[in-house]
Amino acid sequence: MSDVWDPHGSLQRALWIGGAQWSGKTTVAELIATQYGLTVYHYDFHDARGHQDRRIARRVALGEPVEDPTPDHVWLDQAPEAMATETLTGFPVRFEWALDDLRALFTGRPVIAEGWGLRPELVAPLLDSLRRMVLLVPTEDFRQHQLRTLPRAGTLNVPVTDPARSQANRLARDRLVAEDAVQNAHRLGIRVIEVDGTLDAVAVAAEVAEHFAPYLDTVTAA
After folding, report:
1. Which residues lie across from 195 on neighbouring strands?
2. N or C: which end of the chain has fewer CB within 10 A?
3. Contacts (Cβ under 8 Å, ≥6 apart) of 119
4. CA of 5: how far to CAs of 11, 88, 103, 218, in Å?
C-alpha cells in the first residue's frame, strides 16, 4: 500500500465489495452507507458513463476505431469464453480509472466501493488487511430469481438481431467472470459470501457490516 499514490488517503480507508453481477452489491453498499454515514462509489455507473472519454482516448492512442463496437459484435459475434476473456483483460485498465475517481475523494470516514470490476487480484495490493474486502456471489437459483424479478437483469436492453442468444451469451460470460473472481478471492484469502436468497438484503448487509466492523464508525448517521 505504501507504494500506491493516495494523496488524500481515500484508498487507504476504502472498503471494497466485489463479486458477481446481480448479487446485491449496490443495495448492500447503500444500506451500510446509510447506517454508518459513509460514501458509496458505484463502479458500474462511473465505468459506463464517466469513463467514456478515457475509453475513447485509449482507442485513439492504440490506433483502434473510436466508435463503440456494435451491439451485435459485442453480444453475438463472440463465444462467451472469448467475451469473458475480453472482459477480464480490460478490467485492469478500467480499475486504474476507478482508482483515479477514488483518489479525488476526501472523506473522514471510509468509502465503500462496489462493483464487479473491483477484482480481488486488483484490490488486494491496496489492502492493509484482507477484511477491507468481501465478494458477494449469487447461487444459481438466486441468479435465476434476479433474472425473473429485475428487468435490467432479465433483458439485455440493446438493439441486437438475436435477443435470446445475446442474453444467453451475456449470462454465460457473467458466470465465467464470476467464477474467475471467486477463484482469485480464494487464492488470496479474501472472503466470499454466497447469496442464496434465504437472507434479505438487510440481513446480508448486516453480515457484510460485521465483516467490516473494525473500520466502521459506530455512530449511526443522523
Report:
1. 138
2. C
3. 18, 91, 95, 181, 184
4. 9, 24, 8, 29
**201-211 and 25-36 helices, crossing angle to 10°:** 70
What is residue 127's DSSP assignment?
-
Range with lowest mean pLDDT among 71-80, 81-90, 107-116: 107-116
| Short-list 211, 2, 218, 42, CA closest to 127 | 2
pLDDT tens-digit series, residues 197-221: 999 999 999 999 999 999 996 444 4
Predicted model pTM: 0.92
Q: Which residues 6+ apart lie within 8 Å of 45 measured at CB?
A: none
CA 193 – CA 23 distance, rounded (Å): 10
pLDDT band at 2 (very low <50, low <70, confident <90, very high): low
Q: Which H or E element spans position 23?
A: none
In Å, what is the CA distance from 194 to each residue of 22, 105, 143, 217?
12, 30, 11, 26
